[in-house]
Known about the structure:
The protein is of the alpha/beta class. The chain has two domains: 7-18 and 73-103 and 388-520, Aspartate Aminotransferase, domain 1 (Alpha-Beta Complex); 112-367, Type I PLP-dependent aspartate aminotransferase-like (Major domain) (Aspartate Aminotransferase, domain 2, 3-Layer(aba) Sandwich). The protein is 36% helix and 12% strand. The protein has 14 helices and eleven strands. The protein has helices at 58-68, 90-102, 114-131, 135-141, 156-171, 181-184, 186-192, 209-216, 237-249, 272-281, 371-380, 382-406, 435-456, 488-513; strands at 150-153, 197-203, 224-227, 252-260, 285-289, 314-318, 330-334, 410-414, 420-425, 462-467, 473-480. Strands 1-7-6-5-4-2-3 form a seven-stranded mixed beta sheet, sandwiched between helices. It has a four-stranded antiparallel beta sheet with strand order 8-9-11-10. A hairpin with a 5-residue loop joins strand 8 (410-414) and strand 9 (420-425). Helix 2 runs antiparallel to helix 11, helix 3 packs across helix 11 and helix 11 (371-380) packs across helix 12 (382-406).
Amino acid sequence: MKSEKLESNTLFDCALELDQENFEDRKSEAFSGGFEIGNKVNDYIYSLIQKKAVDDVSSYDEMLRNTIIPNSINLDSKGYMGHMTGPIPKFIKQLMNTITEMNQNVVKVETSNILTLIERQVIGTLHHAYFDKSHSFYKEKMQNPNVCLGVGTSGGTLANITAMSFALNKMFSKSNSFEGIAQEGLHNALKHYKTEGVVIVGSERMHYSIDKAAKLIGLGKNSVVRVRTLPDGSIDIDELERVLSSLRLMGIKVLSLVGIAGSTETGSVDPLVRLSDVARRNNAHFHVDAAWGGPMFFSRKHKHVFSGIELADSITVCGHKQFYLPVGISFCLFRQPDFALHSENNTAYQCKKESYDLGRYTLEGTRPAYSMLLHALFSIWGRDGIEAVVNSNIEKAREFASLIEQEKGIELFEKPKTNIVTYRIRIQRAPHWNEEKRREVENLLNTKVQKEIFRDGDGFVSLTELKGRNSECYSVYRAVFCNPNICKKSMNLIIDKQKELFEKYLNSYLEKCFQEPVLEV
Length: 521
C-alpha cells in the first residue's frame, strides 16, 4: 500500500477488474488449455504469500485472465461431455455474488437469521418432491426446530456419509443401561446388541463414498459388501438375497441397503421398489443415492424410472449436478422427521437444544447459505423448467447412443437409463488374437485415445473400467449429457476424432509388434 501505516480497512477496498465478460461466449472455445498437468507442477510449489500488501492488483488480474481462466476446464464448451458439473445459469451466478457479499453461516440463527428458514423451506420442498407427504405434514414439520426433514451438505459424499452415520446411531440407539453408540462407541454397541458385525450392502456400482463412510464410522472398508450387477448395470436381486441369507447365518447385521437412482459411473438405476421390500424384510435402513438422478424425478416423462425412491429411509440429492448450481451443495433427506434425533449435537454457544440452529444435525459446522441458490432455481425455473432441461439432456443422450449404434466398429456398452452413455471402439480385423488379447489391446488403445483428446483440449469424454458378464474388465468411454451447449455436430466431431486416433494407434501398434498392413477399424 502507498501509506507507510497499513490501515486494516483499506485492505477491503482492493478490487479486481475481472467481470462476467471474461466468461461470455465460451461455447465455441476449446474444452481446456491443452497441457499435461505433470509438466506444470514445478511452477506451483513455492509460497504464494506476498510480503507486502499492494494497492495495484493488475498483475494478479492479468494472471487470472491469461493463465488461470484459459487453462481451467471450460464447462460451456460444446465439446465438454465428460463429467457431471455443467454451466451455471446467469441468475445463479448473480445470486452467488450476493451470497458471498452476505457471507452468512447457517450453522446457527445468530449468523444466518432468515437464511435458516430458507434452508428448512428448501429441504421441505425437496422432501415433498420425493416423499409427497400431506400439506398438513409440512405445515407442522417444515419449520419445527425439534424435528429434521434433512440436512444440507457440501457434496454428495458427505450426504452419503451422513445417512450411514445417522443410520448407525439409530440402529444402536439407547437401550436399557446402554447409552447408545454415539456415547459409548461401536465396541460396546456390538457387545450390548449381541451381534457379530455390521455391514453396508449395495451393488458393484455403489459410489465409493460409501467406502469412505464405512471407514469414518468405524466399520472399515471390508464391511462394504458389493453385489454383482446385471448386464444393464442394476443390482442382481437374486444374488443379493443369497448374500443376505449368508450374512444372517453369520450373525451379521445389515446397517443399510443402498439403492442407486442413477449411478455416477454409468447412470444405471436399481429396482428401488424391490430393494425397499428386501430392506424392510431384513430390518435394514434403505438409502437411495440419487446424487446424479435425483433431479430427473422432476420429469413427468422419466420419473417412472425412479419408482420406489419414495420408499427410501434417506435420499442423497446433489444441487451441483443436474440442478446446475455451483459445486458444493447437496442434501440428505430423511423420510421420518425423528430419524436425526439420535445424532444431534449441542454446545452452550450454538446448536442449543430446541433452537432453530441447523448445526444441531449437520456433520459440518460452518456452512454457506447455498440453499438460497436452490430456492432461486425453484422460484425462477420452477418444476416445468427443471423438467425441460432434464428431458433435453436425456434426449441428447439417446441421440448420441443412436449415433454410436450406427457406427461400424463402436459398441454401445449399456443402453442408457439416464443421460450417461458408455461405449467403446472395437478392433474389426486383427491378427489371430484370442478374445483376451483383443480386449487387452482395445483397452490400451481406447485409454490412449481418451488421454490424447483431453490433452489437446478439443473435447472431452471421460473413461472408466467396467466389468463384463464374466468379470473381465473393459476400458469404456463415458459421455455425460448435462451440458446444454452440446449439439449433434459436437457429438459427431468427438466420435470422428476418437475413431481417427484409434485407427492411428492401432496401426502403429500392429506395425511395431507384428509388421501387419494397415487395417480397417
